[in-house]
Amino acid sequence: MKTSKELSDRRRKRTSGKVKKNNNGRPRMAVYRSSKHIYAQIIIDKSGTTVAAASTMDIEVRSKLKTGANVEAASLVGKVVAERAKKAGVDTVVFDRGGYLYHGRVKALAEAARQGGLTF
After folding, report:
1. What average pLDDT does the segment 3-19 reach?
2. What pLDDT, on the 0 to 100 scale, is given for residue 36?
3. How far apart are CA 19 and CA 97, in angstroms?
4. Which of 82, 79, 104 has the alpha carbon at shortest distance from 93?
5. Hey, which CATH number is domain 4-115, 2.60.120.280, 3.40.50.2300, 3.30.420.100, 1.25.40.20?
6. Cα 70 vs. chain centroid, distance in angstroms?
7. CA distance 88 to 84
8. CA 22 to centroid of chain Cα atoms
């Protein structure tokens, strides 16, 4: 029987692999969610470079939050990553939820990024 770590890695590879294949040259917005923080970065897969990134560990985000593990924190990270992406000249991305369900903190981050001006 597979461990929960092996199963989560399998889900992550399956969803991220599909996104990488079908992105049509668009940058990928990858999300990582831990028990205490949430991270988002915009990656250009062809060159392997990160264009913009934000997390609850950033000083400007951390100062506005009580904790990094709730929906409010995720929505703030979504707004910040969208703002940084716009500065870098990226307005259309592909959302890579990384094996997580599109619910809760992941959904809040995605909706805040859309409100911030990113299209996906």
Report:
1. 94
2. 96
3. 9
4. 82
5. 3.30.420.100
6. 15
7. 6
8. 17
Query: pLDDT tens-digit profile of 12-58?
Result: 999 999 998 889 889 999 999 999 999 999 999 999 999 999 999 99
Cα 65 from chain centre: 18
Q: pTM of this prediction? A: 0.92
| Cβ pair 78, 44 in contact under 8 A | no
Q: Which of 32, 34, 51 is CA-nearest to residue 42?
A: 51
User: Would you place residue 118 in the very low, low, confident or very high pLDDT band (cuts 50, 70, 90)?
Assistant: very high
Vertex 77 angle, CA 22 and 9, to 5° = 50
